[in-house]
Amino acid sequence: MAEEKTVKAMKRIDAANAPILEEELKEVIAKGAECLIIDMEETVYICSVGLRVLLATQKTIRNSGNEMKIIHVLPQIMENFEMTGFSGIMTIE
Amino acid sequence: MKKRIRTLLKLNLKNRAMFSMLTGMLLLTISAAVVSFLTYTNAMKNHYGDLAVNLAKTVAVIVDTDEVKKLTDQVMETYRSQCGEDGSAPDFEAFTAKDWDAYYDAFKPLYDTPEYESLFECMSKVKENNEVLWVYICFMDETTNKAIYIIDADITESACNIGKCDEIEDENLYMMQHNIYDFPAYCTNYEEYGWLCSSAAAIQDDKGNVIANAYVDISMVDVMDTSISFLRNLLILLIIAAIIICWVYSIIIAHTIVDPINQLAAATSDFVSEKKGNAKDGTTQISQLHIQTGDEIETLATSIQKMEKDINFYIKNLTEVTAEKERIGTELRVAAKIQQETMNCILPELPKQKKIDIEAKLFPSKTPGGSFYDVFMIDEDHLGMIVASATGKGVPAALFMIITKGLIRNQLQEFKSLDAVLYQANNKLWKENDSTIFACVWIGILEISTGRLTYCNAGGENPYLMTANSKNHFLQSQEKPLPIAAWENTKYRAGEVMLHPGDVIFMFTSAVTESCNADKEPYGVERLQETLDVNCHEGMKDLINIQYRELKEYMDQVEQNEDLIMLSLRYGETHISDEN
């Protein structure tokens, strides 16, 4: 049973607060989460910087042999993921 | 005046010390003087009191008792003869000068008696040898409560006549009632005689009967004069001592406190000017301070010297850090300049056979990021176009952009297929990209002679195609076009479209449609589409400007925080055939 850690993403992940999310994620990773879960239930907007944060996290997690999941993605965000092709490389549930 | 004194005291440590020292000295002097004076005066009083008692006793012993008795009897006889019929004292208060003369005349014959002469001689010797004011013998008459002068060994005018009467002091009267005739020293201060210390001793006959009293008076005025001169001398001595002590003390203070402090003050006040004058370490006034007082001031000087060293070290550090910052700042400015120059792409000269209207523009935000476009001729018939935006801001994004641009442009010029160009660029950038910046890129090649546009999209926006027959649409690309540098081995699929004369293709970065208004509502594709549809007949320059204006109007007061890129191209206008 992998140890799960959940991080709740903010309502709008824009250029201004994407670094805050990045810090949060880094902190959780530093504590050694085997399975990182990003809960995007409340997120209605994500900009390219936000996508970059998710991508960077994915890269770090994958390199350390752990896994990352994104859950509760709203349709408009899902559309964004599909548009950019991120849905192909990330585990979205 | 008060204020001046205060400033003086405040400014000058030496004066302050002197002032407190003087005050202390003054208090000490006064108390010493008071205590000494009181002790001395008391001792003097006791001494003279004892002297008076002893002398009185001496006189009482040495006088010839028989002579005293004889004289006393004679005097008292004369006195009684002048008393009232009831034996009371004469009414002296009612006496006129004539009465007085008559009274004293009655006693005159007694001066010539041998007893008087003998006694006078004896008592005068005592008086002269002991420097007392008066030596005399009185008869204490209890019937009239008077002390009657029998003999006074005085040759001055103030001498008392035989028969003169004084009131007996109350305390002496009291003692007499208890048969005590030796009166201890007591002080009186009568206008007639002045301030006196008196004592009396009883002169007794063989049987122990009291014949009369021998009196000795010592002038307290003389005694007090001695006391006052003692006090004066004492004060002069103490004041001189105080002044000398203060003077010495002030010299010591000046030497051990004031001078070192002044040295410290002078050295520290010049510190900054010395630093400005580029004084070398060890040559400043502070470092050359030589204070060896062995007390807190030396400690202070040592800590100031240490502080100077610390400050020097700190300044050195700070200078280095500032220089480093300056260097980085310069480099950043250079980087920003390079970035800007890279962004300002100059459109190439296009071949004349087909009239192509092309316009590209970058609308920078306040902090430039990694957006760029490129339009260039690959060969005489092929026009290459790149529209891209990298994530992030500042120098990292700018550097990434420059690398990406060079990489793609080089590969395009090698005529590789577009999907291969992006595949290779992606893998290369992905490997070397630690900071996980990625870029959304759209590339296209237009074959000018035929109007064939091949393109490939990596995460960028699909261009909007406005055809002459008004079937406007977005160019479709593969389903999930990942940006380049996002994930390794990403495969891209190229697309192709034939442009017909009059067709307009509009390329843009996602920042255009993602720009929000005050309600955080993005501009969106629909609004873009609408504006373009309406204005597609305008010149390309106008079209881009109109589009930008519309977007700005939509955003209202919201600040644009992403670079915007718009690239618009109209292929071979319809009137070209006219030219042919």
Description:
The complex is a heterodimer of chains A (93) and B (580). Chain A is an alpha/beta fold and 93 residues long. A 4-stranded parallel β-sheet of chain A has the order 1-3-5-6, with helices on one face. Chain A has a two-stranded parallel ribbon with strand order 2-4. Chain A starts with a strand and ends with a strand. In chain A, helix 1 packs parallel to helix 2. Chain A is built from 3 helices and 6 strands; from the N terminus they run ββαββαβαβ. Chain B has 580 residues and is α+β, with helices and mostly antiparallel strands. Chain B has 3 domains: 12-225, Beta-Lactamase, CATH 3.30.450.20; 270-344, no CATH class; 347-570, Phosphatase 2c, domain 1 (4-Layer Sandwich), CATH 3.60.40. Chain B has helices spanning 2-11, 13-62, 65-82, 97-105, 114-130, 170-177, 220-269, 271-276, 296-343, 394-413, 418-431, 510-514, 524-535, 540-555, 576-579; strands at residues 134-141, 146-152, 165-167, 183-190, 194-204, 210-219, 357-363, 369-377, 382-393, 439-447, 452-458, 464-466, 473-474, 494-498, 504-508, 564-570. In chain B, helix 1 crosses helix 2 (13-62). Mean pLDDT of chain B is 84; it is low at 574-580. At the A-B interface, helix 2 and helix 3 of A face strand 9 of B.
Short description:
The complex is a heterodimer of chains A (93) and B (580). With 93 residues, chain A is an alpha/beta fold. Chain A has helices at residues 18-30, 48-63, 75-84; strands at 4-8, 12-13, 35-39, 45-46, 67-71, 91-92.
Layout of strands and helices, then pairs:
The complex is a heterodimer of chains A (93) and B (580).
Chain A: E1 4-8, E2 12-13, H1 18-30, E3 35-39, E4 45-46, H2 48-63, E5 67-71, H3 75-84, E6 91-92
Parallel strand pairs in A: 1-3, 2-4, 3-5, 5-6
Helix pairs in contact in A: 1-2
Chain B: H1 2-11, H2 13-62, H3 65-82, H4 97-105, H5 114-130, E1 134-141, E2 146-152, E3 165-167, H6 170-177, E4 183-190, E5 194-204, E6 210-219, H7 220-269, H8 271-276, H9 296-343, E7 357-363, E8 369-377, E9 382-393, H10 394-413, H11 418-431, E10 439-447, E11 452-458, E12 464-466, E13 473-474, E14 494-498, E15 504-508, H12 510-514, H13 524-535, H14 540-555, E16 564-570, H15 576-579
Antiparallel strand pairs in B: 1-2, 1-6, 2-3, 4-5, 5-6, 7-16, 8-9, 9-10, 10-11, 11-14, 12-13, 12-15, 15-16
